[in-house]
């Protein structure tokens, strides 16, 4: 399938490579590698994002630690067995390396898909409204990616009333977040979660004013979209 026709999952990232590429897997004789990229937020903080890339793209580019990666791709999920349990893993799957453009938003994503778990709405101790949603995004060959997203404020209040099966379109950025996981009474480990921080969202049936192609043009041009959530 031509990537340009895949309008339901598009990512643009630009950042510094901060780890060596490690072999991940092979598909039809083509090897894929993984490394991490440090992507700055508009606030000056940074997200450390996992990236998966074909050996074809590595061969034609200098992708060593410390170099910059500017790429277009998709945010994908896969299941990995750890300690006998299946864990949802997420990665930016690079489809194309492009010339770095410092004037672009360095971290943008647009998705459309179906809500596949009831949204979880909550408030923080500072009365910040948050809603967690899991979006199933269709891919070629009858596959789907399951993308966790987090909405804030007005978007969170809107999301809490949605139900499983609703189709939504959204834009935002990919963020990394550390959290503590208790393995036993004596052992606590630090884990990293990856999710989409939503800046704009609409129910697909009511999204005539929400064009995924227009959103994609925002981050593939020199225009920086007005993100509300920059922390």
Supply database-style keywords.
single chain, mainly beta, OB fold (Dihydrolipoamide Acetyltransferase, E2P), twelve-stranded mixed beta sheet, 3 helices, 12 strands, disordered N terminus, disordered C terminus
Provide a descriptive summary of the structure in words:
- With 231 residues, this protein is mainly beta.
- The protein has a single domain (3-220), classed as Nucleic acid-binding proteins (OB fold (Dihydrolipoamide Acetyltransferase, E2P)), CATH 2.40.50.
- Strands 1, 2, 3, 4, 5, 6, 7, 8, 9, 10, 11 and 12 form a twelve-stranded mixed β-sheet that branches.
- Residues 1-5 and 218-231 have low confidence and may be disordered.
- It is globular.
- The protein is built from three helices and twelve strands.
- A hairpin with a 5-residue loop joins strand 11 (167-182) and strand 12 (188-203).
- The longest helix has 9 residues, at 212-220.
Overall structural domain count: 1
Count of separate DSSP helical elements: 3
The percent of residues in helical segments reads under 10%
Reading off the top of the CATH hierarchy, the class is best stated as: Mainly Beta
A few lines on this structure:
The chain is mostly beta strands and 231 residues long. 9% of the residues lie in helices and 56% in strands.
SSE topology:
Layout: E1 9-17, E2 22-27, E3 30-40, E4 46-54, H1 55-59, E5 68-82, E6 85-97, E7 107-115, E8 120-123, E9 129-139, E10 143-152, H2 153-159, E11 167-182, E12 188-203, H3 212-220
Parallel strand pairs: 4-6, 10-12
Antiparallel strand pairs: 1-3, 1-5, 1-7, 2-3, 3-4, 5-6, 7-9, 7-11, 8-9, 9-10, 11-12
